[in-house]
């Protein structure tokens, strides 16, 4: 009938030319800062092989006063996203940070935010960790060799600048990753050679993140 609402199929597109869609710059800025922070914490957990069910403690050192207050207000959400213990999450002023506490790993997210995460005590199978790193090194070496083979004089001459920049950046990144894994292996072997007892995950973490 005449009183029936228009069908969605024939309704005009919403006019957004006059800024009809609301945007919250403050919320967008907060989200942009949250993403790399959560990723950094998850990466550390993965490197330390901390299982998802294990709740960790976190200390945030924040330089931006507004972001510091926002983090304090969102501790439950941050804890949920990072699998942390909300009762052991602290947000502190950047100026108060000192040396990395013993038994903790400090992650630099950016120039305004650093995070300390204590590494839980747990026995580490050194031989298993060494095999994992050797497998990772073999894969990275293969990727690097394959990338280098593509960087021929003909490619550098004929390819567009974006393609050249992309493959050179990939080569540099792989070289850095390869060097880091090699250093981790060297540190692990040195640590293993100091005694017959199995070191804790905290001891291994201190050696790996010192490189």
TrEMBL record:
Listed under GO cellular component are:
cytosol
A GO MF term = valine-tRNA ligase activity
Q: Which reaction does it catalyse?
A: tRNA(Val) + L-valine + ATP = L-valyl-tRNA(Val) + AMP + diphosphate
Q: Which organism does this sequence originate in?
A: Strombidinopsis acuminata
Keyword Nucleotide-binding belongs to the record: yes
Give me the ranges of the annotated region Disordered.
Answer: 186-211
Under the heading InterPro entries, the entry gives: tRNAsynth_Ia_anticodon-bd, Val-tRNA_synth_C_sf, Val-tRNA_synth_tRNA-bd, Valyl-tRNA_ligase
Q: Tell whether Nucleotide-binding is among the UniProt keywords.
A: yes
Which Pfam families does the record associate with it?
Val_tRNA-synt_C (PF10458)
Where the record annotates domain Valyl-tRNA synthetase tRNA-binding arm, the positions are: 125-188
Which GO biological process entries does UniProt record here? valyl-tRNA aminoacylation
Taxonomic superkingdom: Eukaryota
Q: Which UniProt keywords apply?
A: Aminoacyl-tRNA synthetase, ATP-binding, Ligase, Nucleotide-binding, Protein biosynthesis
EC numbers: 6.1.1.9
The name under which this protein is listed is valine--tRNA ligase
């Amino acid at each position: 009938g005449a009183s029936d609402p228009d069908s969605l199929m024939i309704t005009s597109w919403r006019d957004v030319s006059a800024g009809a869609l609301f945007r919250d710059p403050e919320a967008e800025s907060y989200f942009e800062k949250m993403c790399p922070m959560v990723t950094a914490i998850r990466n550390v957990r993965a490197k330390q092989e901390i299982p998802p069910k294990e709740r960790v403690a976190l200390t945030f050192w924040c330089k931006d006063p507004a972001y510091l207050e926002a983090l304090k207000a969102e501790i439950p959400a941050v804890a949920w996203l990072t699998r942390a213990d909300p009762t052991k999450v602290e947000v502190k002023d950047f100026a108060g940070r000192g040396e990395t506490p013993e038994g903790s790993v400090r992650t630099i997210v950016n120039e305004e935010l650093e995070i300390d995460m204590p590494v839980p005590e747990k026995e580490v199978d050194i031989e298993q960790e060494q095999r994992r790193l050797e497998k990772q090194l073999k894969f990275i070496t293969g990727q690097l060799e394959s990338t280098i083979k593509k960087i021929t004089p003909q490619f550098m001459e004929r390819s567009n600048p974006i393609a050249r920049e992309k493959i050179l950046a990939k080569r540099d990144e792989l070289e850095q990753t390869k060097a880091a894994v090699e250093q981790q292996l060297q540190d692990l072997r040195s640590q293993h050679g100091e005694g017959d007892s199995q070191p804790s995950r905290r001891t291994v973490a201190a050696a790996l993140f010192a490189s």
